[in-house]
Design a protein that fits this description.
Largest sheet: 5 strands, antiparallel
Number of domains: 1
Number of helices: 3
Strand order of the largest sheet: 4-3-2-1-5
Structural class: alpha+beta
């Protein structure tokens, strides 16, 4: 039996902000859901506030996928012991910091998706 993932990163394409329509369709926003025992803590950083909620759905990944959300299962990493580079506050930057990813050149949801998929293939 495989161990359930520590973190789910969701990518969505809908947006109400015109400038986000410049980003790749399907990858205009991202958020993270972190497993804490039997529940998930969802951190959804938006331009005007960060939404945090607790989800009790037993198969959150299937729930998101059924709603057209692209999901990558990943893990938390120990963050480096140095300040993160200064970046604008975006959903990508917030999710990277939650995950402990120092990836300074990952700036868009599409780049984060590709980075996580690549990391998934590594041992």
């Amino acid at each position: 039996m495989t161990q359930p993932p520590d973190v789910l990163v969701g990518f969505v394409g809908h947006t109400d902000l015109w400038w986000l329509r410049l980003l790749r369709p399907g990858f205009r926003h991202c958020f993270a859901a972190i497993r804490q025992g039997p529940v998930w803590v969802v951190i959804d950083p938006m331009s005007h506030h960060t939404l945090m909620r607790v989800e009790t759905c037993p198969d959150l990944m299937a729930f998101y996928v059924s709603r057209g959300i692209t999901v990558v299962a990943t893990r938390l990493r120990p963050p480096p012991h140095r300040p993160a580079p200064w970046r604008p506050y975006t959903c990508v930057e917030a999710v990277k910091r939650v995950l402990g990813l120092p990836a300074p050149w990952v700036l868009t949801p599409w780049q984060l998706y590709k980075f996580l998929k690549y990391q998934e293939k590594m041992p």
